[in-house]
Amino acid sequence: MVERSNIIVDGNGYTLEGPGTGIGFRLGGNGITIKNTVIKGFYVPGAGFEAAIYSFETSTTSLPATPLSTISGASI
């Protein structure tokens, strides 16, 4: 969970791989940037969607170096 505002999360090319359920990044701040990260293997049962990134109360979120094709799912 990222709750700070105006922060950059740089995965340095690493993969955040989930167990098949849950949320990869849960964002609660503003001005959050996630870059250089492959996110996969997350899913929210019952909601019917994959959830690599879930953003709540967040006005600006950017993914400059992470093409959406490499993200299992995003609810922004």
As for the number of domains, it is 1
Which structural class do you get from the secondary structure elements? mainly beta
User: Taking all residues together, what is the mean pLDDT?
Assistant: 73
Q: What's the number of extended β-strand segments?
A: 10
How far do the termini sit from each other? 14 Å
H/E topology pattern: EEEEEEEEEE
Strand order across the largest sheet: 1-4-9
Radius of gyration, taken over Cα atoms and rounded to an integer in Å: 11 Å
Q: Unreliable segments (pLDDT under 50, ≥5 consecutive)?
A: 65-73
The biggest sheet, with number of strands, parallel, antiparallel or mixed sense and barrel status, is: 3 strands, parallel
- Binned strand content: 35-45%
Q: What's the tally of helices?
A: 0
Basic shape: flat
Name the helicity range: under 10%
Structural overview:
The structure is a single chain. Helix content is 0%, strand content 37%. The protein is mainly β and 76 residues long. The protein has one domain. The strands form 4 sheets. The chain has a 3-stranded parallel beta sheet, with no helix packed on it. Strands 3-8-10 form a 3-stranded parallel beta sheet, with no helix packed on it. β6 and β7 form a beta hairpin. It is flat, with a radius of gyration of 11 Å. The two termini are 14 Å apart. About 12% of the residues have low confidence.
